[in-house]
Amino acid sequence: MNKKIMVVDNHFLIREGLKLIFENIAGFEVAYEASNGTEAIAQLKQALPDVILLDIIMDHIDGFGVMAYINEFCPQVPVVVLTTVDTGNDIKKMLNLGAKGYLLKDAGPEQIINTVNNALEGNTLLHSKITQIMSTEGLNPSDFNLNDMELMLLTDISKGLRIKDIAIKVHLSERTVKNHLSTIYNKMSVSSGIEAVALAAKNNLI
Hints:
The protein is α/β, with parallel strands linked by helices and about 210 residues long. It has helices at about 10-25, 35-45, 65-75, 90-95, 110-120, 130-135, 150-160, 165-170, 175-190, 195-200, and strands at about 5-10, 30-35, 50-55, 80-85, 100-105, 125.
């Protein structure tokens, strides 16, 4: 069965472009689309997609409003932000609301598809430019105390590997890998893989 995608963007050409991208990818279908947050929320009240591609700047209810609704009423649906907004505060706000990925609109089809796949697996990815923006804020590496295993897992996450792929690579169960990642996030005082990778990059750990 195809994974159903919802595209929420106020630009018709963006929505059509994303539909064209996923039309050529087996297992995906752009089943829902909305031009603003009000339309998106109305559709979410009727049926849930498997993943959402969400812009921020829209009329009526913006992307933050949609994300807040999703966070409260359907948090099981992963969201990938696809936007032109590249300010640190807005990025952090979206991540804190639960976004699984953050891409700028100059991202290529392969990167968009990869990020969506990772979001569906429960993993997080973001545009490399976003990583650079986030890496301007960091802690001292000496505060992290990451061991060799944790550094290796963090490096794998930064490469976009999915949890199940990492588990196979290091001969551990997916649950054990998730536990290691939780420990990493606690040590680094972050709440997601995106933030951990950005912070590690800032401090030259990966």
